[in-house]
Automatic annotation (TrEMBL):
It comes from Pedobacter steynii. The active site is at S136, D290, H319. It is found in: Cytoplasm. The gene is metXA. It catalyses: L-homoserine + acetyl-CoA = O-acetyl-L-homoserine + CoA. GO terms for molecular function: homoserine O-acetyltransferase activity. Its EC number is 2.3.1.31. GO terms for cellular component: cytoplasm. Homodimer. This is Homoserine O-acetyltransferase.
Length: 352
């Protein structure tokens, strides 16, 4: 079991765009114990609306009887800056005004999320990470971290993610923000502002997370005489309402913008040059029918990251397959890590 801890960084946190937050707090959870060699750290980066409880949202891959288990590993997952599950976010109090930030919260990027992670790692005394893993927005963080400071990471696992967020992905996110902005309450400076718009945004997002086959498998009507009250309609409404009960429109707005900001080539020579500098042993995994992060994006990563391994998986769930197909992921990642250990042993023998 684990409880949420909070790291208060009481110094000014400078964002990539030059703006500053006087202080930030980062919520995180750890599972298991750091071993004597301090070489059993598994750091998981979460996706858009997830939280620091990786044993909850990535069940089957993380858990007591799973590949990444607290009995063997020291597992860390931090709630990203901007998300309201304990970290500083738009609903947090602005120390200058004494009121919540809301839309005065400064925009941030994937690199800012990584900078916050690195501060937490330093606070925890973590110098080496055995496995850094993330999917979707979490994968964007993991990749950026590996480019920024890859020497501390032994193995990098990127799932259903990319080097640059695509015009297609940005268009999906902008459509969701347009939905939120049509809700006038979004500008009312209240914690529940924009929830009707957020419900619509979630409905739009689901279309990019799943696939035609997934909807056919789960929402197809069993009778032919219906003219309304369709299962697919109810499902969209239910999922929208479900998110509204656990998230806020302001965090969603800012985090979607952070996803749009992802481009490993920004401020560097090029995207391919940035990828060529990735040092950890890398495994890239893609979902064959992922609409939001097409598998061509993972193939691009594997092609340009030195000696990266690549594996594609089949899933009727599309992009969400990275959260659901944990049996397949366990097999693929487990084999990769075994090969990584063997390579390490061979290398030690050669240098002995």
């Amino acid at each position: 079991m684990s409880t949420i801890s909070t790291y208060p960084h009481n110094k000014t946190f400078k964002l990539e765009n030059g703006k500053k937050l006087r202080k930030i707090e980062l919520a995180y959870q750890t599972y298991g114990k750091l071993n004597a060699k301090k070489d059993n750290v598994i750091w998981a980066c979460h996706a858009l609306t997830a939280n620091s409880d990786v044993l909850d949202w990535w069940k089957g891959l993380f858990g007591n009887n799973d590949l990444f288990n607290p009995e063997e590993h020291f597992i860390i997952c931090a709630n990203v800056l901007g998300s309201h599950y304990g970290s500083t976010n738009p609903l947090s109090e602005n120390p200058v005004t004494g009121l919540p930030y809301y839309l005065s919260f400064p925009e941030f990027t994937i690199r800012d999320l990584v900078s916050a992670h690195r501060l937490l790692a330093e606070h925890l005394g973590i110098k080496d990470i055995k496995v850094l893993i993330g999917g979707s927005l979490g994968g964007q963080q993991a990749l950026e971290w590996a480019i920024t400071d890859g020497s501390a990471i032994e193995n990098l696992i990127l799932v259903a993610t990319n080097a640059v967020h695509s015009p297609w992905g940005i268009a999906f996110n902008e459509s969701q923000r347009l939905a939120i902005s049509t809700d006038r309450s979004f500008y009312a400076q209240k914690p529940d502002g924009g929830l009707k718009g957020l419900k619509t945004a979630r409905s739009i997002a689901l279309l990019s997370y799943r696939s035609y086959d997934a909807y056919t498998d789960t929402q197809l009507e069993s009778v032919n005489d219906k003219t309304g009250s369709f299962r697919a309609s109810s499902y969209q409404n239910y999922q929208g309402e479900k998110l509204c009960k656990r998230f806020n429109a302001y965090s969603y707005w800012y985090l979607s913008k952070a996803m749009d900001s992802h481009n490993v080539g920004r401020g560097r020579k090029s995207v391919t040059e940035a990828l060529s500098g990735v040092k950890p042993n890398t495994l890239v995994i893609g979902v064959e029918n992922d609409v939001l992060f097409p598998i061509s994006e993972q193939e691009f990563l594997a092609k340009h990251i030195p000696d990266a391994a690549f594996h594609s998986i089949k899933s009727a769930y599309g992009h969400d397959g990275f959260l659901i197909e944990t049996d397949i992921l366990t097999n693929v990642i487990g084999n990769f890590l075994k090969e990584s250990i063997n390579k390490k042993i061979i290398k030690l023998h050669k240098t002995a």
